[in-house]
Amino acid sequence: MASLDVDAVQVFVTIAEQQSFTRAAEALGTTQAAISVKLKRLEDRLGEKLIERTPRRVRLSARGAAFLCPARDFIAAHDRAVAGLAVEPRRLAIGFLDYAAGTELPALLARLHAHDPSLVIEARIDSSRHLLDAYDRGDLDAVIVRREDDRRDGEVLGVARYGWFAMPDFTWRPDEPLRFAACAATCSERIMATRALDAAGIAWTEAFLGGGTAAVVAAVSAGLAVAPLAHRVVPFGAIEVSARLKLPPLPAAEILLHTRVTDPHSRAALRTLVSAFREHRVRAG
């Protein structure tokens, strides 16, 4: 029976999740050459080709795909054993912009926990500005937020696209102020929307303000107002009314990861979360 090296199995799992030797090396705090050697050692030990690598693509072989779940279980069992000896558990505090993860947030957190059960995860959901303030104070280790005008740092994870959404029976006469809902006076979406309306010369009034994205979605669902929403959080039954109401287009916004995590295990866990986040966004379109 072949005995397995924990580091080599971790390299295989990380490459599989990142689909990149470069990102896997970064997540593990090492070099591409080092992880290539460890992967080769594991493949030789098992007598199987696990990863197929071309200049354009990194993917699992058929045997690699079959080995991935047992490999994750192996790493998780190892981490649980090591965690039993730890004096103090490791903590990872992450902030999420509410619409950035969408309805997949529970699945993302479950993926993170499965990757490292010994990690104590603290999740916070809030607006980008509040999350960035908490991150700058050191209250959060990492945040996934939309790009703010005054910041140029962070890793781009994707793009959030916006539109004006309302229920099909929502009506507005151009000689009246547009009734719209926003999450808070200082939220990025409200600022973006009011700038666009002002530039287009459209009078507006806030029929609903505050309570976060969930409250704005509720206001739209109730037919109280139109709202500037990311396409990922549109309530059931709502439609985009930009063309029908002749409302100005809303700019897309980049979704960024900011992190100060430095220890290899936490960085690897965070890269797993990022990989899962990107996978969900691709499937969601």
Protein architecture, described:
The protein is α/β, with parallel strands linked by helices. Helices cover 46% and strands 21% of the residues. It has helices spanning 6-18, 21-28, 32-46, 62-83, 98-101, 105-115, 128-137, 188-199, 212-221, 242-245, 264-284, and strands at 51-53, 58-60, 91-97, 120-126, 142-146, 155-160, 162-166, 178-182, 204-209, 227-230, 239-240, 253-259. The protein has a 5-stranded mixed sheet. Strands 10-7-11 form a 3-stranded antiparallel sheet. It has a two-stranded antiparallel ribbon with strand order 1-2. The protein is elongated and about 75 Å long. It starts with 5 loop residues before the first helix and ends with a helix.
Name a few traits of the molecule.
alpha/beta; single chain; elongated; D-Maltodextrin-Binding Protein, domain 2; 11 helices; 5-stranded mixed β-sheet; 3-stranded antiparallel β-sheet; 285 residues; Arc Repressor Mutant, subunit A
Radius of gyration, in Å, reads 23 Å
Instruction: Tell me the fraction of residues in β-strands, as a range.
Output: 15-25%
**How many strand elements?**
12
Oligomer: single chain
Output the CATH topology of the domain at 162-251: D-Maltodextrin-Binding Protein, domain 2
Largest β sheet strand count, sense and barrel closure:
5 strands, mixed
CATH architecture of the domain at 162-251: 3-Layer(aba) Sandwich
| Spatial order of strands in the largest sheet | 4-3-5-12-6
Q: Tell me the name of the CATH homologous superfamily of the domain at 162-251.
A: Periplasmic binding protein-like II
**Helical proportion, percent range:** 40-55%
Provide the CATH top-level class of the domain at 162-251. Answer: Alpha Beta
Distance N terminus to C terminus? 44 Å
The number of helices is 11
Instruction: Supply the helix-strand structural class.
Output: alpha/beta
Q: What is the overall silhouette?
A: elongated
Runs in which pLDDT lies below 50 for 5 or more consecutive residues are none
Mean pLDDT: 83
Order of SSEs: HHHEEHEHHEHEEEEHEHEEHEH
Pfam family, one: HTH_1
InterPro entries: LTTR, LysR_HTH_N, LysR_subst-bd, WH-like_DNA-bd_sf, WH_DNA-bd_sf
Organism: Plastoroseomonas hellenica
Protein name: LysR family transcriptional regulator
